[in-house]
Amino acid sequence: MWQAAVGNALVLSKGKQSRALINPRLLTLVTLDAYKTCLSRARRALASGTFPTTVLSLMEDDIRTTLPSIHLFIPDKGPMYQDLRDMLCAWVVSRSDEGLGYVLGVAKIAAMILLNMPAEHGFIVLRNLLERHCLRSFYGGMATKDDVEAYYRIFDTLLADGMPKIYFNFKQHQVSPAAYLPDWIVPLFLDHLPFEACARVWDVIMLEGDAFLYRAALAILGVLEPRLFFPDKKELLELLRGENKAALEVARRDGRLLNNGKYEIYGLDEESLWERIDSMAEWWRESTWKRLIERELPDL
């Protein structure tokens, strides 16, 4: 389903794309060639010692914190570790012509995709997914800084409209979306949500795109709302990072395993998240999302 939902427009030239619409087998051949080409370039760079060591170090750090509860991607031990490393190396090569480097968090997305399809197909989904405008902005470094700022303003407006108490509390403590939104969006919530909740969110993101990214992010704040009214900024930021000391202590005392999303300590699970998403139907409007995009990103 994810392959069909994300598509492959990025990789195919116009000529190949039109033929692929007629001949699906050609589409498969082109996707396989794209992965093989990038992976071959990456392997040559690794063999010659020209693959940047700083990138390799970031990549290994990223992999070490990727879905630790399922033990499939443990460096040098996990049965899917090499597939993940290969895909990430190929992804780095595919972005190198644009001068873009590694971004911490992409290992989580690549791993989630690998759980659902082979690497050669997963690579195409990864590339196209991360070229959707919102994710492209957060993965684009300084070149897309202005777009990221626009997305922060959009989020603030939606938060003010739908959850004014949270919005004014954040304003009082001078907590902007920049303090928490990248940590959610870059790994597509995999660092913070339990795996089952995240898998369900992903299904809808693949189908509906950037708008649902924001609905899910707003729903997370909705679930956390009773905990968000701290007297000082430091405690509020600790909570948003999933590091609230009181909640951690309670979770440890209850004997809960804390390796399945940082917000597990707050009791945030698939059911509570989806209840909040459903309740947002009272005020969420796709027309508002589109109007804000047109206002803040007129060239999109």
From TrEMBL:
Signal sequence segment: none
InterPro entries reported for this sequence: Rab-GAP-TBC_dom (IPR000195), Rab-GAP_TBC_sf (IPR035969), Rab_GAP_TBC_domain (IPR050302)
One Pfam family, short name: RabGAP-TBC
SMART domains linked to this entry: TBC
GO function terms (MF aspect): GTPase activator activity; small GTPase binding
Ranges in coiled-coil conformation: none
Protein name as annotated: Rab-GAP TBC domain-containing protein
Annotated source species: Pycnoporus cinnabarinus (Cinnabar-red polypore)
